[in-house]
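Figure 2 data, in text form.
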Amino acid sequence: MNKDLLLVSGDAYFGKLLLQSLEREGYHVHITKGKGEAVVRADEHNCPLAFLDSDLGIKSVSEIGRALRTLNPNIRLALFSDEDTPPALDELHPWILLHKPYHLPEVLTMLKD
């Protein structure tokens, strides 16, 4: 199983927390801030899953998700959002919603499914 994961977020603190939590569980997290860097890292490390932070803005999340799916149609997308209602990202279905602040057990369960 490939344990390389991608996180696309502009929030360095959030990225560092998630990175530390998941690395303790044996995952390798590659943090990027935008579409170009995300596509390069996902390709280099053959990441099976990308976490997208809704704080980047729904338009950016949509663009990044489409670019990642163009690279790898099977990549799983997980969206971190602090909103109660999931944003409209129909073009990215399927995707998984995770709430901010995140709870590690919820993230680990999602990774194992």
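Caption note: The first strand starts at residue 4 and ends at 8.
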